[in-house]
Design goal:
The complex is a heterodimer of chains A (212) and B (10). Chain A has 212 residues and is an all-alpha fold. Chain A has one domain. Helix content of chain A is 70%, strand content 2%. A two-stranded antiparallel ribbon of chain A has the order 1-2. In chain A, helix 1 packs parallel to helix 3. The longest helix of chain A is centred in the C-terminal third of the chain and has 28 residues. The termini of chain A are far apart. Chain B is largely without helices or strands. Classes of the chains: A mainly alpha (212), B little secondary structure (10). Chain A: It is found in: Cytoplasmic vesicle, COPI-coated vesicle membrane; Endoplasmic reticulum membrane; Golgi apparatus membrane.
Amino acid sequence: MNVFRLTGDLSHLAAIIILLLKIWKSRSCAGISGKSQILFAIVFTTRYLDLLTSFISIYNTSMKVIYIGCAYATVYLIYMKFRATYDGNHDSFRVEFLVVPVGGLAVLVNHDFSFLEILWTFSIYLESVAILPQLFMISKTGEAETITTHYLFCLGLYRALYLLNWIWRFYFESFFDMIAIVAGVVQTVLYCDFFYLYITKVLKGKKLSLPA
Amino acid sequence: EGERGNKDEL
């Protein structure tokens, strides 16, 4: 464990909690892509099946349980409890165009052709593009609530911090995992234009609105 | 087993 991975995990946890609280407190999931949240639930489920097979640490197990629990709670709030506030018209990204290629790639490019390892690889590839429906929805509506931008900032920051963690591990532990690094770079790059808007607008107290 | 050294990462 190093400071980048720890702050990365905490940033990820913050993002998940911010989103859950936003929906729960405002009793609304306006502006939130339910499709992205379903993809994240799939990412956690396929990645954390090792909860059933191996114990690494209290921290590892508790974080995985929290991530999975919050992900399904968020999906439940969006599609069941507050479904009247779900903006399905703008949440129109064709996720099958993500899941199918990612599934194929996971079978072709992985470290070990075993069930759990292919699922892990699938979850790594899927996570790198899982935010696309959400970013697509914001581009369609042309704006995002400020709390949603904080959620996205923490979510984007977490994998950027993981990139620093992998640089640290390469330098000090001469360890690197090409699959996780490439997917992490793709994932972080997808947030770049959002990061620019967040830093130049939201941090200056303006609302995040895209040129329509 | 631990051929992939980042099994401890979330």
